[in-house]
Amino acid sequence: MRSIIRAVQRDHGCRRPDAAQRTGPPGSGEEDPASGVVRCFGERPVPYDEPVEESGALVEPSPGELLAAARGAVAEGSPLIVAARSDAYAGFLRSLWLEHPELAVGLVMTTGDVVTPVGPGPGYHELSVDERGGVWRRESVPLELPEGEIPLGPDDVVLVSGGGKGFGHACAKALGEATGARLALFGRSEPDDDPALAADLGALTTDYAYEPADLGDSLAVAHAVRALEERLGQVTAIVHAGGVNRPARFSELKDGEIALHVAPKVGGLEALLAVVERPRLVVTFGSAAGRYGRACGSHVALANGLMRDRARKAGSLVRRVLTIEWGSEGRCDLFLRLLAVSDLSGTVSVRTGEDPHPQK
Questions:
Q1: Within 13 Å of residue 254, how many CA atoms lie on the same side as its CB?
Q2: Which residues are in the Ketoreductase domain (predicted)?
């Protein structure tokens, strides 16, 4: 399977007026307004030829440790360099820099003990260090999405978190109509107490069942999934679309805000994987800010980055895992198109509209 990071995002929310707020790497993709065609790009490593010096870094921090270190860097005006084995912290760190461009902020991805700062002076820098100490950066490369068929049908049961309302519901509805798959939906609300939820469920034209459950409560999730399987049959695919998104500047974050966002994204995914026995397909909905950052979204970016990393690790047990990192506007047709690319796994970052801003 191809395991790649791809294109795609329009900015929203609390943003700086200059172009530095834009998300995405250089050339990360765009939509042609006339044709509606989304251009997607992957990433490849290329040698980094600028001077670097060895230095200390915060290694594989917990969310609490990362928050404390970031607060210290902002208060003291000191550099913040994080060393990790994945890009899970990238969105958080770039979000921090977008709000505090006077800082030197960096992520070093390494598989060994080599720790290298990402570059001199203020800015956001992101590099990888290999086992031999070689330093690399990422470069965008254009990719195409070939036509194909969605690997689901009437015999499948698709479990959709956050599937009662909003974009999760819209994608579930489109998937059911396109494949005939039965839809096992759950969310926080009760239909009797939420007219909008009741209306959305009433608009479904395919076989479905709905159960209320909070993604942050693993026992409630397990109970809901078992109830849904009793009505529809064994779950064969998961779409994890639920989560929390409360924009706030980094300086306004309270101690529990990161945990509030991480719980449904990461804990929710773990709860789904624990209760569903070897699904054939797992799709998670993240945000392009989780990879490329956004002002007023450092905590959201961290939650999505950690979820992306957890989804990758599920690849050893699940035949196909796909993380779709949406911009401000998701598209159900693109969701279906991505599912139809049979050998596509890994991360797809979706962007429409403006030219992206370089990461550095």
A1: 5
A2: 156-329
Name the residue among 302, 313, 310, 307 with its Cα closest to residue 64.
302
pLDDT, residue 147, reads 87
Domain coverage including residue 44: 39-142
- 205-223 per-position pLDDT tens digit: 999 999 999 999 999 999 9
- The answer to whether 319 and 50 are in contact (CB under 8 A) is no
Domain boundary residue among 75, 107, 142? 142
How many CB atoms neighbour CB 291 within 10 A?
Answer: 28
Distance CA 306, CA 266 (A): 7
Which residue has 């044709």 as its token pair?
35
- For the entire predicted model, the pTM comes to 0.86
Among 31, 30, 27, 37, which residue's Cα sits nearest to residue 141?
27
- pLDDT value of residue 122: 84
Do the strands 38-47 and 29-31 form a parallel or antiparallel pair, or are they unpaired? antiparallel
